[in-house]
Amino acid sequence: MLKFACCHDVRQYFSPEHTHVLRGIKRGYERECLRVDVTGHLAQTPHPLRLGSKLTHPWITTDYAEALLEFITPPSADPAFPLDFLRDIHRFTARQLQDETMWAGSMPCIVGDDKTIAIADYGSSNSAMMKVAYREGLGLRYGRHMQTIAGAHYNWSLPDEFWTILKSISAAPGSMQDFVNARYFGLIRNFLRFGWLISYLFGASPAICKSFLQGRSSDLQELVPGTLFRPYATSLRMSDLGYQNRAQDQLHVSFNSLAEYTQALETAIRTPDPFYEELGVREGDHWKQLNANLLQVENEFYSGVRPKRVGQDGERPALALKKYGVEYLEIRLFDLNPFVDIGIVPEQSVFADILLLMCLFRPSPPITAREQAENDVNKARIVNHGRQPELSLLVHNCEQPFRPIAHALFDDMQPFARMLDAAYGGNGYATTLASLRTRIDQPDTTPSAQVLAAATEHNGLFKFALKQSRHHHDSLLAQPLDAATLASFEESVQASLAEQQRLEALPQERFEDYVASYYA
Known about the structure:
Blueprint: H1 8-12, H2 16-19, E1 26-36, E2 60-62, E3 68-72, H3 81-96, E4 101-102, H4 126-142, E5 152-157, H5 160-170, H6 176-194, H7 196-202, E6 207-209, E7 221-224, E8 227-229, H8 258-268, H9 274-279, E9 282-283, E10 286-287, E11 305-308, H10 317-324, E12 328-334, H11 346-361, H12 369-385, E13 392-395, E14 398-401, H13 402-424, H14 428-441, H15 447-457, H16 461-477, H17 483-505, H18 511-519
Antiparallel strand pairs: 1-3, 1-4, 1-5, 2-3, 5-12, 6-8, 7-8, 9-10, 11-12, 13-14
Helix pairs in contact: 6-11, 7-12, 8-10, 11-13, 11-14, 13-14, 15-16
């Protein structure tokens, strides 16, 4: 039903003269987490200056809320580097938080109304004010609670030498960048078809604290007083309760080509929305949102995977993609694992590497509107009911049992695990794939099932997550940084503060002119 036909270019990559190029894969992580006070409430304090400037620090910043930390690792071809560096960021940060801790889970717990969720403040420069206005707009459009959800993003790119060999083997016409773009978008389409595997295997948000709903009705059940859940859910973070907001259903962004994708985003940031127009853009000098269009900026469009390109300073993402092509992919489906002090386990990147290679080499026809609806249904079933016995998914508009589909995909991934093991030596990829495969038939071993069990044992999600947060904090404090690493972080803090001061000392054009030039 879902068997992979091993094509010529895959077989070529099994030869010793070619597999070595996979060692050039670059990886990086972005990890978000909330700062909370000693009682587990959302921190009301500013971003600590001891962590540097959130506008200019390369590794430590914030996402939407002032209390939502974001840690970024530089890209590296060393598979161990991203998590090692991320651990160093956590160890440094834990020492700067004093009476606060980093929340262990993806979903926040004790939160008040929107007024208690402060938007991140980046300073007085135009670039800083634009970040704030954009976040004001997100809060206005979707509510601030959705912007307190945390996750982990995996950044991934293949080396130039890989593409050179693959293009030669494929005898593909056209420019190298056109070839790379087409293959990355083929990968993305297959990831949209099969990325639900990540939510099943690594989802860790099957429950939420009742305060997150702020009195809104839902079909969730009560696990214990104060904790709501779906019995077989894997990742409510990726459900309609989390990032998958229905307000973007009308966008219809196509991943069938780079041209269609960038054109859809360009159109969305220039097409007025009557509801957003009614909300208004400005009240005097206060910007409520950057514009009243379907999207304020391209990154407002939420997808489980994004094609990315680092552009020139101030260049819009869609324009950079259009001009220079795809540079790397951002995988956005990972929940935080509350059992781990840095929220991410090594198996995540190992599995993602295998899955992404399978998605790259597997045939990937354009996604029709009918298939997109099918993909959306499958994703919703996994995040809401993934561990349900007798769960079925849609395959070519027919109901098929989940477990055989999942096993067939694991069968198809095995050659790519062997390919990566040939590149790096050992059998770590194949062993990890085999271990993760057992979760298909043993759903109680998934992180989502373990979180539910722990929340029940601790008489609520909040009590469990607070205990884990304090435990992780103590664990990180017990792992001292060496003198050189500590000095590097302290230097980066001072450099970021100086850079923000430099930017703010520069002449600033009128903010409305700055915004207009951004969209020009």
